[in-house]
Write a structure and sequence with these properties.
Keywords: Bacterial flagellum, Cell projection, Cilium, Flagellum, Periplasm, Signal. The chain has 373 residues and is of the alpha+beta class. The protein contains 7 helices and 24 strands.
């Protein structure tokens, strides 16, 4: 019962925080918080590199031939001959390097990179990423990464036990990449602004366009925004407006948002999140659980003295079944608080609430989308 009350308190707290976000309206938010600029998106970068300086936790060169080839190619580029026998050192590892190039990034600025082992290395702790070029989807090099790898996980191993905490084969290089090339397109070269809703909704898109047009009517004397669909709102740039200043003024406009009713359930963790607009039609619910307990108590039987018998084990199994059935409760959820109170009155655990919500949805009484994770 305590876990049910705790989940109900969390659900009500989330609903209260959502309902009291802005003073202008119950569900009002700034445009910058609910939409993003299409030309202001991130771009993914990827590269292949080597991490050196590992304490015997790197790739086995025989098992990872690409690591050996990469090491020889790197040494040859540095003017060092690699002719001769094969190296057995395990202080080097082949890695994949990834990063997100932020919008409007300029050459010379830095960004974080992620490093992930590609071979059979056991840990990247203490290693250093050597110069690695990062390319975009167009094949062009946009950044170069290098620096010490920070690994949060650790591993300790003895003769009879092993302790692992986190992941030791992946890490980060904070500010490890320097941007060498800027993106081809520039913000002020655009003729219009395209705003994309993070949660697509026709009502929110229309309200956003109306808010922008109301501002533009007072500032520029006419409408400039149009809702193309549930996700995109197109804003035409007025001739006398500066695009950067226009975006700064528009992104602070307050819009009343609207979202569809959803119930999100994570069966692995027992988490239940109920949206503020979820409604439940009048329905009767009864929940019962069947518990089967199996107990093994083997008995040791000793032979009689001088009988030349042997000690034997006689198995003994005790099976007990318990069935707990709750009363039939009537749920009627015209609002979120009433729905949570009705679920608490049934007195079941989180897994029981998940089963009840799934049953209510199958009965057609849950007026919301049920999302299972």
């Amino acid at each position: 019962m305590k876990s049910i009350r705790w989940i109900a308190a969390v659900v009500l707290a989330v609903a209260a925080s959502l309902s009291g976000a802005a003073p202008a309206s119950a569900d009002a938010a700034r445009i910058k918080d609910i939409a993003s600029l299409q030309s202001g998106r991130d771009n993914q970068l990827i590269g292949y590199g080597l991490v050196v300086g590992l304490q015997g936790s790197g790739d086995s060169l025989r098992s990872s031939p690409f690591t050996d080839q990469s090491m020889r190619a790197m040494l040859q580029n540095l003017g060092i001959s690699t002719q001769g026998g094969q190296s057995n050192a395990k202080n080097i590892a082949a890695v994949m390097v990834t990063a997100n190039l932020p919008p409007f990034a300029s050459p010379g600025s830095r960004l974080d990179v992620n490093v992930s082992s590609l071979g059979d290395a056991t840990s990247l702790r203490g290693g250093t990423l050597v110069m690695t070029s990062l390319s975009g989807a167009d094949g062009q090099i946009y950044a170069v990464a290098q620096g010490a790898v920070i690994v949060s996980g650790f591993s300790a191993q003895g003769e009879a036990a092993t302790l692992n905490e986190g992941v030791t084969t992946a890490g980060r290089v904070p500010n490890g990449a320097i941007i060498e090339r800027e993106l081809p397109s520039r913000f002020k070269d655009s003729v219009n602004l395209v705003l994309q809703l993070r949660n697509p909704d026709f009502s929110t898109a229309v309200r956003m366009a109306d808010a922008v047009n109301g501002f533009a009517g007072r500032r520029y004397g006419g409408p400039i925004a149009e809702a193309r669909d549930s996700q995109e709102v197109i804003i035409q740039k007025p001739k006398v407006a500066d695009l950067t200043r226009l975006m700064a003024e528009i992104e602070n406009l307050v819009v009343e948002t609207d979202t569809p009713a959803k119930v999100v359930i994570n069966e692995r963790t027992g988490t239940i999140v109920i949206g503020a607009d979820v409604r439940v039609s009048r329905v009767a619910v009864s929940y019962g659980t069947l518990t089967v307990q199996v107990t093994e108590t083997p008995q040791i039987i000793q032979p009689e003295p001088f009988s030349r018998g042997v000690t034997a084990v006689q198995p003994e199994t005790d099976i007990m079944a318990m069935k707990e059935g709750g009363p039939v409760a009537i749920l009627d959820g015209p609002d979120l608080r009433t729905l949570v109170a009705g679920l608490n009155n049934i007195g079941v655990k989180p897994d029981g609430i998940i089963a009840i919500l799934q049953g209510i949805k199958s009965a057609g009484a849950l007026q919301a989308e049920l999302v299972l994770q």
